[in-house]
Structures are given as structure tokens and as C-alpha cells.
Amino acid sequence: MKYKSSLENNEKYHKHNPRHVAIIMDGNGRWANKKGKMRILGHREGFKAVKKAIRFSLINNLKILTLYAFSSENWNRPLFEIKSLMELFSYALDSEIQNLKKYNIRFKVIGDIKYFDKKLQNSIYNAEKMTLNNSGLILNIAANYGGRWDIIQSIKKIINKVQQGVLHVNNIKEKTLSQYLSTSKLLPVDLVIRTGGEKRMSNFLLWQIAYSELYFTDVLWPDFNQNIFQHAIDTFISRERRFGGFKKYEK
């Protein structure tokens, strides 16, 4: 990832920019199929798009970038594709760790990673540990993640607290559940971008995006670039977020 020149020339931060952007990176396989290539080649091109998204986030001073890398439903894909995806994930971690450190990026994974092999788990733990004290962009990767899983594991933790007598059932509120989600220490999600033309959330951050702005594009993920990202940001800025309240009319 070569960010230096861009960062030196652009230190702006628009006060209305979203602080936390989450992206459903869809379309790698279809991109490859359209070009008559193997699906794994689409995923490799998708990794290049990830680096473009990170570069854009750094230039525009976004606080958090959450990427939906591998859902809990993706285990239903062909074994060869899953194996290739795991190898690509491991390679990306090992090859980019120095850039994460160099550009002050904190790396974090949300999801049930115990199902990954030990080598990949160790790569994840290593990247999280080595970037723990970084204070810049938080790069949040959702891997073996599902929104329903996240809510269930949060409920289990709450039940455990009730059984221990630490929490009374009458004191359980919305913020209680939020405190036990995998994103509990992160800013709320302001904007969700989905590439690939589909218009659904696919079990992604179901609780967290209740009032997030949504942006859909037909562009397949490997073709995602800074212009498309900027258009999503501009669309976000143009909207009035009311969070269930009334629209503010000028007198």
C-alpha cells in the first residue's frame, strides 16, 4: 500500500464525513466469471480494491473502516474456494503488517475465528497485538461473522451476568446489548456501502446499522475505486439524518 504521496497532499477532513463506514464487498466471483477467470482470481483483485478503500479512508481521515470479508454463511461455498480465501487472508495479513504499523492503522477482527486454522488465528492475533497501540484508522475486518451470531453471543453474555447477580433483568436496555456486541468499543456505523448490485444486508451488523445510511452500487467489488467511494460519501453528506425524529424545516 503506497499512501505517502496522497497523504502529504490531502489532509482535509470534512466535518460532515461519516466517521465509521462499513462495506459489504460483493462481486468478486461474478467479476471473475465475466472475464472467464477462476473465482479466486476475483478475490485477489478484490484484495487490491481493499487497499484502495484503505487508502481513501486514510486520505479522508475516516475513523473506522469495517469490511465484510467472510460471512458465517460463506462456509457453504466450494471447499477449494474457501481454502483459497483463507490462504489469501493469511497472505494479506502477513504481507501488510508493516504497512499497518507504518500508517498507524489499528487492525481488529470481529467474528467467530475459532473455526479458522491455527496458522490464520495466529496471524490475526499477531496483527491485532502489533497494532494495538496505533491511534489512527481502525481497520475492522468481519471474518466468519454474522449479525445474528453477534446478537446471540451478546445475549449469552448478558444471561451470564444475570445468573451471576451482576445485572438485574429489569436493567437490561438497548445499550446493554450494544455493550456486549463485537463492535462495543467502536463508534456507531454511519454509512453502509454494498457493491455488486444486491440490495440486502446479508446478515451484516444487523443491530448496529439500525439508523445507518445505506448506499448501493452495481459496481463489482474488484472495480471499486476512490471515485465510487467519494460518490458514496457525497451521497451520505447530502442526506439529513433524523434518527426517527422530525425533519428540520427552515422558517
Automatic annotation (TrEMBL):
The biological processes this protein is annotated with in GO are: cell wall organization; peptidoglycan biosynthetic process; polyprenol biosynthetic process; regulation of cell shape
Q: Which residues bind substrate?
A: 27-31, 39, 43, 71-73, 75, 77, 194, 200-202
Record-linked Pfam families: Prenyltransf
- Which InterPro entries does the protein's record reference? UPP_synth-like, UPP_synth-like_CS, UPP_synth-like_sf
- Name the residues that bind Mg(2+): D26, E213
Q: Give yes or no: UniProt keyword Signal.
A: no
Q: Which UniProt keywords apply?
A: Cell shape, Cell wall biogenesis/degradation, Magnesium, Metal-binding, Peptidoglycan synthesis, Transferase
GO CC terms: cytosol
Stated name of the protein: Ditrans,polycis-undecaprenyl-diphosphate synthase ((2E,6E)-farnesyl-diphosphate specific)
UniProt organism field? Buchnera aphidicola (Acyrthosiphon lactucae)
